[in-house]
C-alpha cells in the first residue's frame, strides 16, 4: 500500500522538477510513485530517447500548455534521490509527452505522490546507458 | 494512504463529468485523487488555459475517441464539491488533452478514485483567477 | 486501499503486455489497478474503437517512442485474468494513445500496479460488444 499520499502544489513561476525535488527533500521522501500531476506550464523541455545506449533528443515548447498527466517515481541511486517523471503536455494545437527535463509552472501544478514503505532503487545499466529500476 | 479505492463505470450515453459527480455524491466522497479513467467518448469539449488570470479557449471533438488517461482530484471549495479532471483523448488521427469540460461516454468510462482520509480544499486564487488547491 | 503496490520492470526486447501478464501470474494478481507505466517501446500496435458494437482499427508505430503514461486494470472474466491497458506513446514528432495491443520494450517499462482486496470482474456486454467492468 501507499504508506502516505502527498498532494501538493508547485506554484506559478517555479521550475516544476525542482519544486517536486524540494518537496521530497522537505518531507524526506526517498521512495514513492508519482501518481499524477495536472496544471499548466510554459517553457517546457522534454527528452525523447532515440538510440541505445542513452541517446536523447530534446525539444522545447514555449506554451502555455496544459499538464494533462504525469507518471514516475522517486528512488535512490547511490544514496542520491532520483525523481523520474514522464509528462504529457497539450494545447489545442499540439500534444507531446516525454521525459520531463524542465518546465516553468504557469497557473499551478497539482502533484500527487504515493509514498512506499520499501525502498525503490536505481542502478546504472550498461545496456540502456540509463539509471534503471532494480525492481 | 488511500482509505478506499473506488472503481466504477460511467455508462454509454451518460455525460462523463456528471457521472463522476453523481458517483461521488452517492458515495459521499469529498476528498480524493482521480487516479485514472480509460474508455471512449464522443462529443468531448476540452478547455485550454491561454492567459492569466483564468482565460480559457474551448475545443470540441466529435470523436469517437479513446480515453487514454485522466488525472485529477475531488476537493471542497466553500463546502461545495469540486471535481477537477484533465483528460487525454486520442484516435488514430488526433491526440489532445486538457481540462475536461464535458464528454459523452461512447462504450464505457472506467473510473478509479482513491479516497483520502483528510480534506482537500480549494480557494479562489486572485493571481490565477482559478480555484487552486490549498495543498 | 491498495493492499499491495507492485513496482516492476519489463526489460528490453520483451513484449509489454506479455511481460505484465507474466508478472501478474507469478504474483497471483487477479484484481488491481494499473496506476502507471513509463519507459520506451518500439513496434507498438494500438487499437482505436470506431463503432459499436466492438469495431476497432489498429495502427502500428515503429518508434522508438516514449511511454508517457498508461492506465488500466487487472480483472477476472469467467475465471480468466484480463489485463486492460490504455497507453500513451510519444516522440518529438508524433503523439498517440489507445488500447495497448502489443509493443516491444525498448529501454525499459516501469510498471506500477495497485492490488485490490476485492475482486474486479468483467462480463461480455451485448451493447458495446466488449468485456466491460461489472463495477
Would you write up a description of this structure?
The structure is a homotrimer of 135-residue chains. With 135 residues, chain A is mainly beta. Helix content of chain A is 8%, strand content 65%. Chain A is built from one helix and eight strands; from the N terminus they run βαβββββββ. Chain A has one helix at residues 16-26; strands at residues 2-10, 32-51, 55-61, 65-77, 80-90, 95-116, 122-124, 131-133. In chain A, strands 1, 2, 3, 4, 5 and 6 form a six-stranded antiparallel beta sheet that branches. A two-stranded antiparallel sheet of chain A has the order 7-8. In chain A, a hairpin with a 4-residue loop joins β5 (80-90) and β6. The longest helix of chain A has 11 residues, at 16-26. The model of chain A has no long low-confidence stretch (mean pLDDT 97). Chains in contact: A-B, A-C, B-C. Chain A binds chain B through residues 1-5, 7-9, 12, 35-38, 40, 64, 66-70, 88, 90-92, 95, 106-108, 110, 112, and chain B through 1-2, 33-35, 46, 48-52, 57, 59, 69-73, 84, 86-88, 95-99, 114, 116, 120, 127-128, 130, 132-133, 135.
Largest sheet of chain A, if any? 6 strands, antiparallel
Average pLDDT rating of chain A: 97
CA-based gyration radius of chain A? 15 Å
In percent, how helical is the residue content of chain A? under 10%
Short characterization:
The structure is a homotrimer of 135-residue chains. With 135 residues, chain A is mainly beta.
Topology:
The structure is a homotrimer of 135-residue chains.
Chain A: E1 2-10, H1 16-26, E2 32-51, E3 55-61, E4 65-77, E5 80-90, E6 95-116, E7 122-124, E8 131-133
Antiparallel strand pairs in A: 1-6, 2-3, 2-4, 2-6, 4-5, 5-6, 7-8
